[in-house]
Specification:
single chain; 167 residues; four-stranded mixed β-sheet; disordered N terminus; signal
Length: 167
């Protein structure tokens, strides 16, 4: 019985954490002008993905925590709400095995690693969210990635507007 109560409390905590990440993303998006939420005709935003290091998960790094389900659930909720959500994938080694489990944001067809605002200095050096060993850490990685995607889309639209104005 006591165990069931703990599960319920932890699941409420997980939902609250997911909600917190989504609210933070919404706050970021609400500061943008409405026109910034609409893509320019014919312009496709670069593809972003969050990749969970499969090697870390398989070897049970970080006390065996697997951030993949939390990231997928958060991405689904964000996408359903119309917020920027990277595709969540299981991927290969990201080169920071001693810190696992690790998650990397990649961009474009060539999956170029991206460092985002809010990463620690060490994370920015590796271009990897390091030691993602809890739901709150996974939600932090998702929230920072989502914000970076929104900022990239905004910058892309600003560049297109400047180009159009120059013509």
């Amino acid at each position: 019985m006591a165990l069931a109560g703990r599960r319920s409390a932890s699941s409420r905590g997980a939902r609250a954490g997911t909600l917190l990440a989504l609210v933070a993303t919404a706050a970021t998006l609400m500061t943008r002008s409405p026109s910034a939420n609409v893509a320019a005709p014919g312009a496709l935003p670069p593809k972003f993905a969050l990749r969970v290091c499969e090697k870390c998960v398989n070897r049970k790094a970080g006390e065996g925590y697997n951030p993949l389900p939390v990231l997928r659930r958060t991405a689904s909720a964000a996408a359903a709400a119309g917020w920027p959500a990277p595709e969540v994938q299981s991927g290969g080694c990201v080169g920071a095995c001693e810190y696992g489990p690790n998650v990397r944001l990649v961009k474009g067809d060539y999956a170029i690693p991206v460092a985002v605002d809010g990463m620690t200095e060490e994370e920015a050096d590796y271009k990897v969210f390091l030691s993602i060993a809890s739901e709150s850490m996974a939600e932090r990685a998702f929230g920072l990635s989502s914000r970076a995607i929104a900022e990239a889309a905004e910058k892309g639209e600003a560049s297109q507007e400047e180009t159009a104005a120059a013509l």
